[in-house]
Specification:
Strand content: 15-25%
Largest sheet: 6 strands, mixed
Number of strands: 25
Strand order of the largest sheet: 3-4-9-12-8-7
Protein name: LCCL domain-containing protein
Distance between the termini: 137 Å
Keywords: Membrane, Transmembrane, Transmembrane helix
Pfam families: LCCL
Organism: Emericellopsis cladophorae
Radius of gyration: 40 Å
InterPro entries: CRISP-LCCL_domain, LCCL, LCCL_sf
Length: 700
């Protein structure tokens, strides 16, 4: 007899056969037909048997972590996709159950919903996220400054007094060097030079000098000693400005050369061109008016290409040669002082707050008072302007430090050399963007400038590609830290705000330095080496934007954003002029212009005419006395040079867009204007400086 106990060689179904009754073990008549007993595991089911319905999907789905696991002795193990219905005993596939939560999204195709769920699950990051921490390269070497501090300054009292002495020496040294840079030697016979801005000219913008330039007199027998700051070569006109039949843009406005310059040229730019002052260090000199001059040649000298003009202009100036004048812009010495002290502070402190706020304050004042100063009349005025910007900037600095990730990036970082190179270095690069990033052909980030500036679109495309690469890498790092979803929601709000701003009627969105920095800064809130570089650069851009330009409005009207660009106003229609050339009885030639009335009479009430970029005629349509319906211009028979005419409608004392130049040639022929408007105005950011120059000139 075979033992009932199972050994290693027993088949798996042995217990089943042992427990079966004798009738099951004895084959009946049906065995001959079926070949096996009715109770055999492979025997057909009886007709009255109701099978238990169970649906099982043999796939490998994602496990829903929100459901608790089964527990207890009676818990039945089921497939991850098998869900039993207690009432019917029917198991429901998990994906069918999940569809109940997507009822309101049934219009979205299932593959799209499935992809969204996969992305959402991926965005949550790993189950055990860990924050990134920088492990210093050569830790003993990088932490050596901290070891020195701990050894020689073990108490907080000692550290406080050392910091007090450190900042005091920094401040005193900076002030003394700044004062030295504001002192200039007196010029014999002229007195002490007066500081002027890089955009100062003798001739006002547009038609502000009035008919025949009477508001800008005298034209000769006048002059004054001046002093220019460094880097005035970078002061460019940002909208087209007319010179004869040319239009100058994105370069210093200097007309003429060989010692004589047209009166609307930038004085400091012309002084650099003439070699009177240095672009790097500035300098001083004396400028004298010489009245009407003709033939202003185009000359390339000292890094500036001047513009030529082949006709006459009522006001010109020259620089007095061979004068003894000593003045120097100390911006590079001030940069060296601040860079040294910020570097020492970075190396010898591990405190995130001391590192950030100490460097922020030092760089802010260095940029505002030395490297990229706003227009000012005196050092006292400059200090007042920077102080007014500094107080709100410090509040924003605290927000950036405490709420936008700077503290998280710098906390616990003991890689002193890497912090100095990767964070502080790019911060200086961003703060000095008028030098370091000036090669990028984008002056202002708006549609108008992108359309008219050569290379701006290509540069913007490259910048966007670089930003995309940076964003992809930062997204990966944020996912590894398990913080990606939080920041995706934040940037979704940013994007929604930008979209809303773009749709507001009557307002245009302008992304300034500081806005760009604030938008991108939260994306650097982690302690990785790339994040140190990005964060330092953005903080520097913020500093430059506020110290130089202040908290400019994000939403601006089209007029504010346009500045001195074309207004888009109606242009006058000028009939073909009649020309009477000089002969034996009449020694002068003349040309007569007649114009048509504007299509919208209520929009304009007069017309202005420029000859050689000087307003020579102004008439108002509704005047009963003194109204002129034609303009007659005469010139001498021996005038062997062309003259340039532009026309614009007037609204009160303000002119609309001027036409392009029509040319009365030296031979007496008329060349029609090309279609479209031109501009005669220059960038007006230094209006205060120009006003000072006029008052000073009149006093002389």
């Amino acid at each position: 007899m075979v033992s009932r106990g199972r050994d290693e060689n027993q088949p798996l179904m042995t217990d089943y056969f042992d427990n079966a009754d004798d009738s099951t073990m004895n084959p009946g008549p049906s065995d001959d037909e079926s070949g096996r007993g009715a109770s055999h595991p492979d025997a057909p089911l009886p007709a009255n048997s109701q099978p238990k319905t169970t649906t099982t999907i043999h796939t490998t789905p994602a496990i829903d972590e929100s459901e608790p696991a089964s527990s207890g002795a009676n818990a039945r193990a089921t497939s991850p996709l098998e869900v039993s219905d207690a009432a019917s005993g029917i198991s429901t596939p998990r994906f069918v159950q999940d569809e109940s939560s997507w009822k309101r999204w049934k219009w979205v195709p299932y593959p799209v919903r499935r992809t969204c769920k996969v992305i959402a699950k991926w965005s949550k990051g790993p189950p055990d996220p860990q924050p990134y921490r920088i492990r210093p390269l050569f830790p003993r070497l990088q932490e050596f400054p901290l070891v020195l501090v701990q050894r020689f300054l073990p108490t907080k009292v000692r550290r406080f007094w050392v910091l007090f002495a450190f900042f005091s020496i920094w401040l005193i040294t900076y002030v003394l060097v700044k004062r030295q840079g504001s002192v200039a030697s007196e010029i014999v016979g002229w007195g002490e030079p007066e500081a002027i801005g890089c955009g100062v000219t003798y001739w006002g913008a547009g038609n502000s000098c009035g008919v025949d330039g009477n508001n800008c007199r005298p034209f000769n027998a006048s002059g004054f000693p001046f002093r220019c700051a460094g880097n005035c070569e970078s002061y460019h006109v940002l909208n087209p400005r007319a010179v004869g039949d040319q239009e100058v843009i994105y370069q210093p406005f200097v007309v003429g050369g060989n010692g004589t310059y047209r009166g609307d040229s930038f004085i400091c730019g012309a002084a650099i061109h003439a070699g009177i002052v240095s672009n790097a260090d500035g300098g001083c000199g004396v400028v004298q008016l010489v009245g009407e001059q003709a033939e202003f040649p185009s000359v390339s000298a000292n890094g500036i290409d001047s513009v030529g003009f082949d006709s006459y202009f009522p006001l010109a100036y020259r620089f007095v040669p061979d004068l003894q004048c000593s003045a120097r812009d100390m911006r590079w010495a001030l940069l060296g002082i601040s860079a040294t002290f910020t570097g020492l502070l970075s190396l010898f402190t591990a405190s995130p707050a001391l590192f950030f706020f100490g460097n922020f304050i030092g760089i802010f004042w260095t940029v505002g008072t030395a490297l990229d100063t706003p227009p000012h009349k005196s050092n006292a005025g400059l200090f007042s302007k920077i102080l007014g910007k500094f107080l709100p900037a410090m509040f924003v600095a605290w927000v950036m430090y405490d709420k936008m990730g700077v503290r998280r990036t710098l906390k616990g970082l003991r890689a002193q050399s890497e912090k100095t190179i990767l964070w502080l270095g790019p911060c200086w690069v961003g703060a000095m963007d008028n030098y370091t990033l000036s090669f990028i052909p984008i002056q202002r980030l708006n549609a108008h400038d992108l359309q008219q500036q050569p290379g701006a679109k290509a540069a913007l495309a490259i910048i966007i590609l670089v930003l995309l690469c940076v964003v992809v890498s930062q997204v990966w790092f944020f996912r590894k830290e398990g913080r990606l979803l939080k920041y995706l929601k934040l940037y979704a709000l940013f994007i929604a705000g930008i979209v809303i701003a773009l749709t507001l009627p009557g307002l245009d969105l302008r992304i300034h330095h500081y806005i760009l920095a604030l938008l991108l800064l939260p994306g650097t809130s982690m302690q990785t080496r790339p994040s140190l570089v990005y964060q330092g650069l953005l903080i520097g851009l913020f500093i430059n934007g506020i110290a130089r330009w202040n908290f400019d409005a994000v939403l601006q009207t089209p007029g504010e954003l346009r500045g001195d660009a074309q207004l888009g106003t109606e242009l006058p229609v000028i009939n073909t002029p009649s020309i009477a050339l000089a002969n034996s009885t009449d020694m002068s030639s003349n040309i007569t212009f007649i114009w048509e009335a504007p299509s919208k009479q209520k929009s304009f009430d007069g017309i202005s005419i420029l000859v050689n970029d000087v307003e020579r005629f102004r008439s108002y349509f509704q005047d009963q006395v003194g109204r002129e319906d034609e303009f007659i211009w005469s010139r001498e028979k021996d005038l062997d040079m062309p003259e340039y005419f532009r026309f614009a409608y007037m609204d009160g004392s303000h002119s609309g867009d001027y036409t392009k130049a029509g040319i009365w040639t030296a031979e007496g022929e008329w060349q029609e204007m090309k279609p479209g408007p031109s501009k005669v105005k220059a960038r007006n950011e230094d209006d205060d400086d120009e006003h000072v120059l006029k008052k000073r000139r009149r006093a002389l």
